[in-house]
Amino acid sequence: MSNYKKICIIDDDAIAVFGLKRGLQSMKSIPEPLIYENGLQAIEGFKKMIEEGTELPSFILLDINMPVMGGWDFISQMNAIWPKDKEKPTIYMMTSSISDQDVEKARTFNLEKNYLIKPVFAETLVRILLP
Amino acid sequence: MQTLSITSLIKDSPSAVAILNTELRFVAYSRVWLDDFCKGQSSLTGKNYLDVLPRTPEALRSILKECLANGTKNICEGRKFIYPDGTLQWLKWKINAWTDDSGEIGGLIILLEDVTDTKRREEILAKAERVGRIGGWEIDLSTNQLFWTDITREIHEVPDDFQPYIETAINFYKEGIHREEITRLISNAFADGTPWDTELILVTAKGNEIWVRAKGEVEMANGKCVRIFGTFQDINNKKKVELGFKKVSERLALATQGAGVGIWEYDLVSKTMVWDNIMFRLFGLEYNPNDLSYETWQNSIHPDDRKDGDIEIAKAISGTKNLDAQYRAVWPNGDIRHMRAIGVTQKDSNGKVVKIVGANYDITELKNTQMRLKESEDSFYGAFEHSNTGMAIVALDGSFEKVNQSLCDCLGYTMDELTEMSFQEITHPDDFKNDVHLLKQVVNGLKPSYKLEKRYIHKNGHIVYGILTATAVTDMNGKVLHYVSQVTDISPQIRTEKKLTRLVNITSEQNERLLNFAHIVSHNLRSHSSNLSMLTNFLIKEKSDEERKNLLTMLRGASDGLNETIMHLNEVVQVKIGAHEKKKDVNLYDTLKNVENNLSQLIQEKNATFELKIPRNLTIKAIPAYLDSIVLNLISNGLKYSSPKRKPLIQISAELAHDAIIISFKDNGMGIDLTRHQKKIFGMYKTFHRNKDAKGIGLFITKNQIEAMNGKIEVESTVGVGSTFKLYFENHEHYKN
């Protein structure tokens, strides 16, 4: 049983999302994830949840390269709208890039340990989602 | 008888004495009278005085009559008479009336003396005294009184009644050496009778300083001085002339000495040569006036110049011309000095030249200076002609007075063409102001020269890059006569520099593209490969046929994506390769019209307005296919990202800048948030709108294409208002380079 009650995937790559969902389905008692195509869509979705008082995601799988709003911009925006009394979600960055520049950037967000290189398979998800 | 005895007594008198009766007839007379006044007459007794002396002047006749009538006497110490024949006589007399026993006037006793000789001498002396301003004086040693004549008083400028003493007389002499000298001379005279004759300065009673000649003589008796007398002469004018002459001579001597001018004199009759000490020095000889001859001079002359020297002297002697010759003198130690001799001739009463007097001076320094000046001029013109640097002498109005071959070579003109031109004509118009500004500073004396990197125009029109150094040449008063310009042609360096800068730019651009490429590969290709690897992984493990079919469809999508990305990358590579294609003159208006036609359906769908403000004849240097692609992409972007709130408007205009043609594409679309996307806007796979058509490849290709044509692209945008993209194309039409 996972500690995370609400899981969210933000990625514009449909095939990658398919793979992640497939990986999550293989695990028992994992809720169905919320899917957003880019950062801006996710921010808009989160704003709505805050307005309606529904539960915010506690775990986010976030792609770095996306049109309209990429992963890093999303984190900044999310921090700005996140209610102060609510616990911040656990975020894992995902990228197909193998360039060192992206790892460096993750370090500036203290996320260098939460950094996944695509493809992300079920084994990886099990390790990070289950205690 | 008493009368007789008187008569005989009178006869023997040593003076001329005569006794007359009342009728003025001689009663008695002395022999001297007969000798002095009546030579040749035997007896005068009974004869009338006036008959005997018919020349007796009227004045004396009156005196005689008066004395006879009144019984008075008349004494005269001397009186001058001039007779009708012009002869002159001085007479001295003493006339007494005599009375008889009864007291009646019996006649006259006349004592007459002819003092003409004495008086004449006295008169001449007095005249001489006055004319020569010679005064006399005498010391009476018994009273110690001093006697001065009128002239002596005049010289001392004292009144007529002035009574001098020895002390006062001495004090008239000027204090110092003059007074000391006269005191010494007078003391000597008192002591041993030494006479004196000296010239000293006297200060007159009125304070004037005058030169006098004082003479003194002493009469001694028994070894004792009894009388001192002398003369006193005003020699001020003479002395002043003498002193003036002395001063002038000294000054001349000083001048010739200082200027190193030697004076010489050659007597042609006695064949003697006279040199002053400077002459000896000029020839490097010991001062030895006794051993000097014409040969001494001749031997000092350089052997090559001797003949000319002799000719010059001969000409002077014959009177053809005054002597003025230049020659070399050889010193005993071998030194050679350049000399100039000038001289004038003196002729005797027959007009024959007997003497040459002249001056001689050393002109070695002058000669050397002249030679150095010539050498300097020669070396300047030598350097000027043969210099590898372009050189010109430029007149004040900018015209070329003289140019060298190097300058002609670098500007492409012949020497004749260039000397007909001015620097203004060959200066690049953009550099002209700067050059003139600096030139003015030189003209105003603010600086002697200036250095400037400037462009010239070659005869065939291309630009010559040069470094100009212009220096003003001034006269002694600092007035600028002309300029000397030196032009170093640095065109090859500039060309190399430009080529290098371009190479550096290309290299850094290529580096940037390489980085960009690495990024594209790492992100875009890698995302497809990761999908492919993931899907195949699922496929291997999947048992369900239906799910496998689903996975295979996705696998095909992923491989299509990979294919598309590779196609895009290939397009970019093609742009790089295509950059080597030749640019052509492309008519911009036609290009835009063509694109408008191709997009007419989209324009109609969007109900867009298309405004074209481009001159019909504007052409730009471009690769036609790239220009088509760029224009198509920018216009279709403007239509695609139009705002749903307003009717789309696309305006295209052109503007000519200094060295570029700028084409603007302005729309009233959605706009892009540049604060967030400035860096990414021209990157690959960057999309900024939630638009299904957005691929993030168009602007990336556009940027590569415009840069391949040495142009650039810029963007201005405001969200909700619209965007303007500006294309910059190179414009070289101004100058041929």
Automatic annotation (TrEMBL), chain A:
The keyword Phosphoprotein applies. Gene3D superfamilies: 3.40.50.2300. It comes from the Bacteria. Residues 6-131 form the Response regulatory domain. The modification 4-aspartylphosphate is found at residue 63. SMART domains: REC. SUPFAM superfamilies: CheY-like (SSF52172). Keywords: Phosphoprotein. The keyword Phosphoprotein applies. InterPro entries: CheY-like_superfamily, Sig_transdc_resp-reg_receiver, ST_Response_Regulator. This is CheY chemotaxis protein or a CheY-like REC (Receiver) domain. It comes from Zobellia uliginosa.
From TrEMBL, chain B:
It catalyses: ATP + protein L-histidine = ADP + protein N-phospho-L-histidine. Keywords: Kinase, Phosphoprotein, Transferase. It is an enzyme of class 2 (transferase). Residues 376-446 form the PAS domain. InterPro entries: HATPase_C_sf (IPR036890), HATPase_dom (IPR003594), His_kinase_dom (IPR005467), PAC (IPR001610), PAS (IPR000014), PAS-assoc_C (IPR000700), PAS-like_dom_sf (IPR035965), PAS_4 (IPR013656). Its EC number is 2.7.13.3. CDD domains: PAS. Signal peptide: none annotated. Residues 74-127, 196-247, 323-375, 450-502 form the PAC domain. Residues 520-733 form the Histidine kinase domain. PANTHER family: PAC DOMAIN-CONTAINING PROTEIN, PHYTOCHROME-LIKE PROTEIN CPH1. NCBIfam families: sensory_box. This is histidine kinase.
